[in-house]
Amino acid sequence: xxxxxxxxxxxxxxxxxxxxxxxxxxxxxxxxxxxxxxxxxxxxxxxxxxxxxxxxxxxxxxxxxxxxxxxxxxxxxxxxxxxxxxxxxxxxxxxxxxxxxxxxxxxxxxx
Length: 111
Description:
single chain, mainly alpha, 69% helix
């Protein structure tokens, strides 16, 4: 079933991250699942673990991970909302070639 597949996916992602993979998609997906756990999985969002995964991805050059860190700061998932940190991470994501970060930055600037 879907929940068993989700648990297996999380186990796989965690094992690859623990092994020190340089595949940024592992960290992108791991961070995503920590931030957005599957409904009915029994997991709750863990933004500290999401930040840890996204930071590992960002250190390897993932623009997606950089943008997601920006969103964690923008949305106050790590404490108080921090628009300057969000802007900094969105700009890093743009510099890394993640084009979707422009819309995130535009949205932040429009607030």
